[in-house]
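Late entry, written up from scratch paper. The run itself happened at the end of the previous shift, but nothing got recorded in the book at the time, so transcribing now.
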Amino acid sequence: MELKRLEGLAKSGYTSFGSMWEKGKVSSDKAFFSLKGENGDVPVQSKVLSYWPDGSVKWACHTALSDLMGEKVSLDIALNQGLEEEILISEDNEKICIEAGKLKLCVCKKGNYLFKDVYLDSKKVLNEATCEALIESRIDNLNVHVERYVGLIKSAKVVEKGSLKAVIKFEGVHVLEKDPEVTKLPFSIYMEIYRDSSSFKFTHTLFIDIDEEKEAIKGVGINFVSETKGPQYNRHVKALVDNGVFHEAGAMLLCWHPRVAPQIYHDQILGKELKFDDGSQEGRDALKASMEMPVWDEWRLFQDSSEHFLISKKTGNENVCYIDGLHGHRAKGVLAYGSESGSITLALKDFWQKYPSTLAVKGLSKEKTTGTIWLIPPDAKAMDFRHYDTRGYSQTYYEGFDVFGASAIGIANTCEYSIGFSDEIIPDDEALDKAYNEVQYRALYMAEPEYYHELRAFGFWSLQSRNTEAENWLENQLDAAFEFYKNEVEVRKWYGMFNYGDFMHTYDSERHSWRYDMGGYAWQNTELVPTFWLWFYFMRTQRVDAFILCEAMTRHCSEVDVYHFGKYKGLGSRHNVRHWGCPCKEPRIAMAGHDRMYYYLTGDPRMLDIFEEVKDADFATIETDPLRFFFDKKDMVYPTHARTGPDWSSFCSNWLTWWEVSRDEEYRKKICTGIEDIKKTKLKLLSGTDFEYDPESSHLRYIGDRATGGSHLSICQGSEQTWLEMTLLLDDPEWDKMLADYGCFYPLSNEEQNRITGGLIGGRQFSYPFMAAGVIAYGAHYYKDERLGKKVWEIIKDSLDTELGQNCIETIEVKNAGNQAVLNEIPKVSTNVFAQWCLNVIVALEFAKEYLPESF
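Output as recorded:
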C-alpha cells in the first residue's frame, strides 16, 4: 500500500502509523512488513493491532524514522522479519536494563524511581526520574494545607520491543511523603525509547482519586535530575515563546564595572561556550565580573491560561522572590537547560491548549539540577473537582435526574511529553523547534481516502464528491459545519486541562454564548457522537486541522468523560456543566467506538487500556441501571436493563472492538446472543427499545414495546455506525435485513407504523428522522427503494429549516457580542443537530447518492 505524510506535520523524528489490510491478505502468523521511502528501504518495526473474523490481520502499526521516509512511502508484506537486531533488554526482579544504540538506561520495577542512570553515547546525562504530587486540603474558606506526595512505582514491564522501539509501561500511585500508607492519584506511564535517538517520549495518564469535598490537586509533576558542571556563565536556559526564543544564562556577563567586552556578552547569548584567558585583561575582567554577578538558579515557564504565559526566575537563596522575565501569549511548551556537562530539552504537548502548565528548572547554579514537567502546576490555583451546586436541575436545566451524582473519582487525564539530551551547553533554536514539532505535530502517514473507503475502514462513510449542484451544496455544508466548530474552539476558548477537546452542547443567542452554566446544555461529552462526525470528516478530507480536533476530542472523551475504576468503571457521564457532573452514568459516553479510529491510525498504546476498561461495562449497569428510575427492581427477572440503543449498541461497540484487538471469541458470542434474543421478539429490531438484561449471560429479555427517552435514542448515539459495521463482520443476513427494515420503518407516519405492526407501536414516536437518515438510506440501498431513497434527501434538506430555522449552515455577523468586535454566530446552533446532521449526510451519501436530486 502507498502512504503519504499529511501536510503540516513534523518531517523528522520517529513516528507510528497504522495500516489496514484486505481480509485474508495477511495471515496473523506471517505479519512481517517492509517499508520503502523515496531513497530506498527504511527500517520498520511492526505489530498487529486488530484482526478480521477469519483471523487475518486487519490493522497493523508501524514505527519508523520519518527523516528517512520522506513525503511518500510504500508498505508491503514481507516474508520474514529482516536482519536488524532488537533493542537489547535484560531484566531481573528489580530493574529492566535497556540499550538502544545511543541511549542506555535502567528502568526500576518498583520504588520511587521511574528510571535511573541514562547514558547518551556512554556519557551519563540523567541521574534519575521521579513523580510527585501536591494535595491541598481545605481547612476552611481562608486556610489550606498542602502536603507532598511522592510517586511509587508498583510495576514496570516491557509491553513492546523490536529493532527500533521499546515501550515500557509503568503503573503506580502517589503516596504521602510523611506516611506512605496514604495513597492518592494513581497513574500509568508509557515510555517509548527509540534506537539511536537522543530523546524519548512519554504518555502519562493521571487518575483522579481524592476526597473531592475536602481536597484539591495543587500539583502533579515528573522530575528529571541531572549533574551540572562548569562556571555559572556557561549555564543556560532557553524556552520557545510566541516569537523566537527566550534565552538567558546563569550569570549574565553584561557588567557596569568592570566592563566586560561586548563581544563576550554577545557570544554568551548566542549560546557559545566561553573560555577566558586570565592572562589577558579582557579575560580577567570577565572572570572578576562573573564572580560578582547575581547567580540565577531557577526558571519557570508558566502558562496560566490559553491567552497568557509568564517566565519568572529566582536566585538559589532561600527566602527570596521570583522576578518576572517575560510575559507573552502562547508558549510552545519547550524548555531547555544545560551546562558544560550537556543539556536537556523538555517538551510538553498541548502546552497552552491544556493550561495550566509549567516547565521548570531548579538548581541550575548547583551540582545537581532538576527539570520538572508540571502537568498540574503549583503556580496555578489548585484543581477543584467539586460540583457547581449541591443539587440537580433535571427539569429546568436538562440534568437527567434530580439525584446528585457529580463525582470525579475515577476519571483521568492523559498528557504527552518528551525529554531529549545533547552534548551542547544549550541546543540551538532549530533543535528546539524540532523538539516542539516532534511532540506537537508528530508525523502521520496515511493512504488515500479511497483505499480506506474500499476496505470499509470503520464501517460505512462516503468519499467527497462535487459532481452535481446538490453534492456540491452538501459538501459545502459539511465544510461550513467543521469550520464553524474549529473556529468556536478558539473564539470561546474551549481550552484547559479538563476541557480541551470537548464542545459545548447548546447555544444561547440572547447572551451570544453557549449555555455553559445551564446543566445538561453545557459540555457535550460525546452526546450524539460528534466523535464519529469528526473522524469520518477527517477520513474523507485528511485535513490536519481536522486530525488535531479529532485527536483532542479522543483524548478528552476517552479520559475525562469516562470512569476508569470504581463502581462506574466503563461508564461515562452524560453532558453537564462539569464533565463528571451529571447523575446519568451511561455506557454510550464511554463506548470504544469513539476511540477506535485514533488507535488504528496511530497505534497509541493508551487506547488499548481504554478498550480493556470498557469491554465489560455492561456489568456496571447492575448497580447503575440506565432505567433504574422507570422500573421497580422487585418486578424484574434480570438484574438490569439495556435499551437496544444506546445501551446494548454501546456494549456491541465495546465487544466488537475487543473481539477485533484480542481475538477473544467470547465477545463475538455476546453480540450474537443479543441479536438472537432480538430476533425472537415480535418486531425484531423495532421492538422495545427497553429490555431487561443479564450481563452474565448477555441475554436480553423482551418486556414490551416501550422506549424510555424516545425511539430516536436507539439510533443517534453511535448505534447506526456500530450496527452497520456489524453487517460487515458477522455474516448474518437476517441481522442485515433487520437493520434495513428498521431504516424503512423509521420515517413512516405513526398511523402507518401501527397499521404494519397491528398497533404494537402505539404512541411511540420515531422522532428526529434526520438522525436516522443513514440507516434509512441503508434501507433504501438494501431494497433498491427509489421512493425511500428520495425521502432520505427530503429529510436531510428539510431538517435544517426545522432544527436551525435556516436552509443552510451559515453564520451571521453580530457586532460587539461574545467579547468579539464581530461575532460570527449561528443563533440556533446545537451540537446534537450538527453532529447528527453531518454524520448522517456522510453515511447517506454512501448508500443513497443515486437518489440525490441534481439540486435542492
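The two ends are 39 Å apart (CA to CA).
(Scratch paper discarded after transcription.)
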